[in-house]
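FW: tagging you since you asked about this chain on Friday. Here's the raw sequence from the shared folder, copied in full. Didn't touch anything.
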Amino acid sequence: MVDIHSILADHKSCEKIDSNGTLDDEPLASEIDFKLTSSDIPDLFFDTILVNYKLSRNETLILMFLYRIVWCRPNLYKEYGISPLISHTELSKLLKLDIQEIYVGIRRLEHFEFLSTIRSGQYFVRKFFLKAFDDKLNQMYDDFNT
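HL: got it, structure written out here
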């Protein structure tokens, strides 16, 4: 009978194997040396948007990424609520999503009016996610009307 310790000793669950059967060299999260940062996301997102809109994982990922680059990182266009230019290909690589998933997610977020496309790769993202919340919380955007 095989000993459980020998089975566990041979198990390589932390190593990633790619489609060719070779070891993936991407570092594990525990091995990455990163600076701990945080982003200020209004509780309104967690209490109202996630509960009432049932966003998919991809839609949530895209919205939070765009929100962070507009409102939580240095951004020349912050007072307008506009993101810096980012290509769909770059967005796809950064979020590890297929380009088609990026397009579908952006269209759905526009349907909900969480963001508007200014031009390909540049977006208007509301500080409080919806116009009604922006109005209620007195959020104004300099010379930009949607």
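FW: The radius of gyration is 20 Å.
HL: agreed, and Residues 13 and 28 are 11 Å apart (CA to CA).
FW: great, closing this out.
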